[in-house]
Amino acid sequence: MTEAVPSCDVPSRRAIASWCLYDWANSAYNTIITTFVFSVYFARGVVGDPVEGTARWSAAMTVAGVAIALLSPVLGAIADRAGRRKPWMALFTLVTVLFTAALWWVRPDPADAAFALACVVVATVAFELANVFYNATLPGLVPPRLLGRVSGWGWGIGYFGGLACLVLALVGFVQAPAPLFGLFGMEWADWGQQANVRATALLAAGWYGLFALPYFLWVPDEPATGHGLLRAAREGVATLLATLRHARRYREVGRFLIASAFYRDGINTITAFGGLFAAGTFGMSFEEILVFAIALNVVAGAGAIGFAWMDDRAGAKPVILIALAGMTVCSVPLLLATERLWFWIFALGLGLFFGPAQAAGRSMMARLAPPGMAGEMFGLYGLTGRFVGFFGPLLFGLATQAFASQRAGMATVLAFFAIGFGLMLAVREPAR
């Protein structure tokens, strides 16, 4: 039975905690699959060539980005007309979990590359669509005075969730001489080639599914409007088209969507290819990459939580601008670094600003969204992010191939930060 929607002035602590825990849950997919473990395994173990593997992974992320861009605003508008968002979230969460678990069958064999990329594309699309509905529930869950704080808490908890999952992956799988805690009493050799790495996909799937459950139990859903799916689809698409036709009415929303699309693309490119960059450029092993990822998640989570109060007090825009400036300052020496010590220093400095930029972007979108249009607006948030978003992986892959250097590919993110910063200066934040 769906829990009644509480008064926004008196938010339920259990509901807020459960909402934040969904960030803890879904961080396993980003951390294990798209960033630090499976992407590296795909390039090194499945394809067997870091440069070629990076390029193919980049192409798959581009395909996923286009699909997300096309689907997210339409589904968001439909959900606004239907009212309820939990069924959509449940569907896309389940799809993500199933296709993530399917990666267990990807052997270190080039013949399995196509199957791996197909699963990753489907899982990534479902993952991002679930997040459209998840983010859209924030404005109805807490009052405006708490938007920045709760959004920051969610991002911070998400980073620490990624940290916990990585530690478990490192201790229980990647470095374990036998399956987790001697599971089934079998050696890894009995499970097949590189089973200890492949099993991290099962860990990510189980983690996501398990810790997402509190959201569906205790976070209130929007009340159903009584519209059937077909009627909601017709009205949702019509509303979306009307919004696009009358874009001038939402000028500030448009400015923010374009500005955030660029800087989010830079962040997403770094998180998607950070593990590949560390492995290919600095020769880090799986174990070293996981230790680095653990440290990165600690500083990123601390940054997200630390800036959460500043978001509510000073506004989301100053937080975003400070974060973009910090990421740019850290990125330049990071790209020039030749020693691992300097790589660690500047990469952790870069990570400190990831969470604040992302959390403040979510709270800014929640503040700008007109009443009753949160799903549609977060769908457009996903659309603009992905409309520009496929350029990041595409340019990364093209530059990596053209210069035979991952440094050249990673350097492309600086342009996205600079453009996002410049466009963000023109955005006016709503009065609080």
UniProtKB/TrEMBL annotation:
Keyword field contains Cell inner membrane: no
Main location class: membrane
Membrane topology, record value: Multi-pass membrane protein
Sequence intervals crossing the membrane: 28-47, 59-76, 88-106, 113-133, 153-174, 195-218, 256-277, 289-309, 316-335, 341-357, 378-396, 408-427
Signal peptide interval: none
Intracellular or extracellular location(s): Endomembrane system
The protein, known as: MFS transporter
Origin species: Azospirillum melinis
